[in-house]
Every structure is written in C-alpha cells, then in structure tokens.
Amino acid sequence: MKQISYFLIIIFLILSSNINGQKPYKPRLDRDVFKVTDAGFSQAWKELRRGHCYFKQNKHGSYQLAVEHLLKAYKYNPDYAVLNYELGVSYYFLYRKDSALKFIEAAFNLDPNVTPDIHLWLGRVYHLNSRFEDAIDEFNLYKSLIDSAKNQKLIAQVNHYIEQCKNGIELKKKPAYVIIGNMGKGINTPYDEYAPVFAPYDSIVYFTSRRPSKFNKHRNRYVNNDYYEDIYYTSYKLGKWHPAALFVKRINTWGNDAIIAIDPHGNQMIIRRGTGKGTFYITSRKDIDRWKRPREVIHKINRKYNFESTLTFSHDSNYVYFVSDRPGGKGGKDIWYTRRDPILGWTRPKNLGDVINTPYDEEGVFLTQNDSVLYFSSKGHNSMGGYDIFRSYRLPDGRWSKPENLGYGINTPGDDVFIFVNKDGRTGYFTSNTQDSSYGGYDIFEFFFYTPKPLLTEDSKDQLIAFLARPVNEITLEPPVPIKMMRLTVVKGVVTEYGTNKPLDATIEIVDNSTQKVIQKIKTNATTGEYMVMLPSGKDYGMSVNAPGHMFYSENFNIPATQGYQEIVKNVQLMPMDPGSKVVLRNVFFDFNSATLKPESYPELNRLAKILKQYPGIVVEISGHTDNIGSFQYNMKLSKRRAEAVVQYLIAQGVPPESLVAKGYGPTKPIAPNTTEEGRALNRRVEAKVLKNPYAVKMRQDTTQTPNPTNK
C-alpha cells in the first residue's frame, strides 16, 4: 500500500491551544451595579446570569453559548464593566480578535480594576491583534502587580507571551511572499473546520468540521461543549469550490471522526475516531461512494493512555511520522517516527529530537512527496503566538535542518496548523483561527507562495506578483513585500488558439502605463495555457500576449485604488498568422487630432517589429481607423497619416519596407456603434493584418517552435 499522507486532527487542538493557557478570572455579578432602569431589567439580569454560568465553565463551546446570552444583557446595559470583560474573554476564546479587543478595552475604560487580571487580558488581546509592543507593555505591567514568588508558573507563561511578541515584531518586519484566501462560506462556517487533506486525482479536499449534522445534533458536554467531529468533502469544479458535503454513514459516527490521510488513488483512507484519546483506523473504498468498515491500524502508534493526532507517511510508506504526547518526549506533544522493518514489522517509535521538538507543543506534521521537506506547527521555536507553521529540510546525512518560520502572513498570533503542500511546493491548504477573512472559529484557507522576479528596471518600486502554474522544486521566500497591506488584484485566465481552442505556451508582458516600463514577464502553463498574475491596485496597466506563430494580443485595463482584493478573468485567444488574421494594436496612442505617436506606443510597436523581423517575406497591412466625428475627408486623411506614422516607426526598428503596407479607412469600418463615447473609443484604433505569410503552413504544423525561414 502506497500512501501519501495529509493530516488533520481533533479537538485537542482547541483544548491544548495556547489561547486557553490561562483561565480567566471569574468576577461576581453585582445586581445593583448592573441595574439601570426597571424596564427590561428582570429579563436582562436573567440573560446575564445565564451567560455568566456558561462563562464560568471555561469550555470552548460554552463561550459560544455565553456570548448569545451576554449580548442580550449588553443591550440593556452596555456600560457594565464585568459584562464587557466576560464578552471580551469569551470572544478571545472564540478567536474573534476584533470583538475581543473592543470589549476588553471597554471593560478597562469603564473600570480599571474590573478584575485582577485585566492587564493580562489587555496584553493577550493586543497580542492576538498583532499589536506586539502594546502587548509587551501590558504583560510587563501585569507581572509588576502580582507576587512572582507565588505565581512562578504564571510568570513563566507571561514571559513566553512576551517572547512570542518579540518574535512577532521581528517576523512582521519581513512578511512572507504569500497569497491567502478563505475557501469560502460553502466550506467554512462559524464553527470549526480544520485539517484539510487534498486528493489531487479528482480535486477533492476532505476536512473535519464541528458543525451540527444529522450524525451529531448535540454538544459534547463532558469535554468542551462543542459539537462532535464529522468528516466532510468538497470538490473543485468549473472554477470554484462546491459547498461541502457530509461523508457517508459508515465513516461518520455519533462520536468524533476526523480524517487523517488518503492515498493518491483515493482507495484507502486513514481516520481518527473516539471521544477520548482516540485511535487511528484505516478503511478501503468498495465502490464510488461506499467504504469498508474501518479497522485499527499500526498498533505501535496507537496507545491506550496517550494522545496521538496527525501522522504522515514517507513516499514508500516505510516511515511514519506522527504527533504524540507519550512519555520520553521533550515536553507536551512531540513529533515521533517509526520504521517498517521487512521482518520485524513496525519498530518502536523514536522521538525526532530537540532540533524539531521543543518543550512546547508540536502539531500537524506533513512530509512532502520526495521526503525532503518536513512541515509542522509548533508553539515553540520562534513562534509569534499559538501554533506557527515551520519547515525543515532533510540534510544529506539524514538529519533535519533547524526549522524555519514560514513568516508573518501565513502565520499569525493565533493558531496556524495542519498545512498541506501540493506537489508544486508553492500551493496548498492550512487551518487558522485568526486570519482576517475568517468566518469564525478555525477555517480552512488556500495559499500560494510566490517569488517576485527582478524588475527590468532598477528604479521601479512596484512588484508584480507572478505565479506560474507548473511544478517547482522548492519554495523560495525572498525579502518580502507586505502583501496584507496592499490592495491586490488577481488576473488569471487561459491562452488558447483561435478556432481550435488549443492551449498555447505563450509569453505575457505587463506594462505600467504610467512609466511605460515592462514590470514583469511570465509564461503560461505549456500544457493547459493557464496563467495567473497579481497586480497592486490603483494603476493603469497594459498587457500583451504573444505565442510563436500567432498574432499577439494587447489590452489596457485600470484597477482603481479603492478596489480591495479581487479576481479578474481574462481568457485570450490568439489568431494564427494566416493571411487575413488581424490584431488591434490597443497600446498605440497619438496626440489629440494628430498623427504624432506618443512614447507610450513604443513598447507595443517594438513587440510587433520583433515578430515581423523573424519572418522575411511576410506582408502586413497597418490600417488606421477613426470614429465618425468630424468630416469624412478629414478622418480618411488622419487615419492614413496615423497608419503611415506606425509604418515609419516599424521601418526604423529594422522591419523591411516591403513587409509593410499603410492604409487609412477613416470611419468606414467601425467595430462598435458610434453613438456612445465607449463605442467611438473602440473605433479609434490601429490594426495589423496579415496579407501574405509564406510560413503559414509550417506554423500551423508546429506552434511550439518559431520557424526558421533561412532553413526552410
């Protein structure tokens, strides 16, 4: 059995999260202080007491219930400090960092002595909101107010928070080159979704969720008052992720069921189930939607009195790396491994060592397919708070390198765990509870790392982000751009051949029209024709697309500065360079009412000149066109003069004069109605049309190489 593992896990992520490290102070309610007026007081007091009871349970699911009641009491009296404190702490445990900050600050402003631990909670909500310097100030103030001799364990925890904040300050200076997107409301909910497992054979993502379902309609009151875990899946079709579906009954039960791994053919699945420590099981597919009854797997990993969570296999399935809190570790949950001996079977698990493991928890282990990179999450190392995602490389002698923090952006002061990396090494999925686009609780996010290529000009300060949809061997994180502070637009699409829809291996150039400088070149995927680029908003861009043996395509588009993150789909079809094929030169501009070329026209005409010089003997008509404003005779003359100006420029760039013909058609060949300004703008254009091409047959036989006319 060959398996490539992709991991997840369980409620203990929540139970052992650093967010729950210190229990909140439980203040007493004061009826007289809360009361404002007789009207509505009785009901508001009941809601406050109910919410307070849930708050005192100190369970994740209970905080959800507490907020429901406390908000009703808040409508009656929003100025009660204790109420604001409990709302703030509840939202903190629900990972709603904005609301947590709002109510904790309000509680302090209403009563600086509302609880003895108010400065601790101010520090924690500042920490969660990446206000690291403010958090350090509050943590230090809190330490000065308590007896360190009697609270050594608490002091150690606060010092750890301070260390994480210092890590955050340094990591924030160099955010990662990464683009992150929430997988959407069809998949994520206000409940917890986590631990994605991707099945690339049919573009399916399996994941675990704690939402109510037909299997689990009640909360687990004995552990955390959350709903039990169920396994869901979603598929990527027609350019989007479909709404999540609940997995089959044989896989999901009344208790906790979490998916751990699936083989590359989708025929075998490892799950984890149980209401306590839990156990790994394996199941096989019967047919398209039926699975066999799961059975226990790898006995030496499963231990009755220890907690084992995620696991991952080597590419040959002879090594298993897993997370466990068994004795002999470095502290908390560690990463262990076991090897399959051909005679003795699975060996006794060994700790991966203190290069990887820390006195704090490790979680979410993932090994890439070539076994060269180990990804995992940790609360230790240089985490900025909660679980951060790290990466370690396998060294030639088999040891692992010092883990690298993947950086601010993909990592946050909350929990960032359960990363799954695709074969390309750049894209994948992970779980987080504090990304800005979260719907609540733990959500599943897509990501891709990108490596900005050097700009063609030294003085250009704007980076175009380019992602090539092709496999790469490693992730490269270079001196980063703070993309979370930028307004970005994804431009993506497919480049195909007109008439055949054949994907093309094309080159795309992006021009900053304000500077007339090419800021990036990218290649489409040679197999699919797909491309994707990311552009800072607030600029006017020119885009040209060129493939051997085809007329190139050009277009201008503006992205307003007020626009936040968005996606624009631009599918391009290139016409083969057959006689009769033509292209609009959209990036050719003239002075008003003149035939004088503007300098911003030069890059487009240079591209055309380069193509024409490759094919001696080709004849191209350069035609000028106008709208119908003004006299017919004047427009005919103006269009001819503009065509001639383009021809003269191309000749100056080395295009043989016999390859060019200038024509002026004035308003006689409109491509849009002249009744609107938009239509008239489209009609004011210059076109290039192929009249003769002795290499047309050769080009159509092989569009993957540029014909060599001298060796035909």
Keywords:
712 residues; alpha+beta; Serine Threonine Protein Phosphatase 5, Tetratricopeptide repeat; Neuraminidase; Immunoglobulin-like; 4 domains; 5-stranded antiparallel sheet; 13 helices; 28% strand; disordered N terminus; disordered C terminus
Report what the structure shows:
A hairpin with a 4-residue loop joins strand 26 and strand 27 (517-523). The chain folds into four domains: 23-173, Serine Threonine Protein Phosphatase 5, Tetratricopeptide repeat (Alpha Horseshoe), CATH 1.25.40.10; 180-449, Neuraminidase; 455-469 and 485-575, Immunoglobulin-like (Sandwich), CATH 2.60.40; 578-712, OmpA-like domain (60s Ribosomal Protein L30, Chain: A, 2-Layer Sandwich). With 712 residues, the chain is of the alpha+beta class. The strands form eight sheets. Strands 2, 3, 4, 5 and 6 form a five-stranded antiparallel β-sheet that branches. Strands 7, 8, 9, 10 and 11 form a five-stranded antiparallel β-sheet that branches. Strands 12, 13, 14, 15 and 16 form a five-stranded antiparallel β-sheet that branches. Residues 1-20, 452-486 and 704-712 have low confidence and may be disordered. The longest helix is centred in the first third of the chain and has 22 residues, at 152-173. It starts with 11 loop residues before the first helix and ends in an 11-residue tail after the last helix.
